[in-house]
Amino acid sequence: MPLIEPAKATTTNTAAGAAASASKTGTAFEGMGSDMFMQLLVSQMRYQNPMAPTDGSEYLAQISQYAMVEQLTKVSQGQQEVSSYQRALIANSLIGKVVTGKNEAGTPVSGEVTSVAYRAGKPVLLTTAGELPVDNVDETRLPAA
Is residue 92 left, alpha or beta, with left meaning phi > 0 and alpha meaning psi from -120 to 50? Predict the structure, then answer.
């Protein structure tokens, strides 16, 4: 009989159970915050095989990789916000101009922009000929005098 038995990982520990429930709702890391990551890391350390312990540099690598992913997520969110602001600025700059493009249904629209509305957070140009999403504008020109 060995003096020390290797610890057995069970799915009843909090971190593993939370990870399993997170994977059911989408990707494995969706909604995983830094607290959840630390719980998983501590559980990994707690249930490692004492006869073959994991090198500490591996844990450091995991922490740094997680920090990198967290920073990339923040950069991506920032870029989305900048893109949203740019669309709003472009939409407002088109008021009084004639635009041509296709609406959501694929029908051609060509008319003077009278105002801007927001549908699901995206700017939509309200023209004399109907609505036109900013992303679907093919041509802009000054109105005929």
Answer: alpha
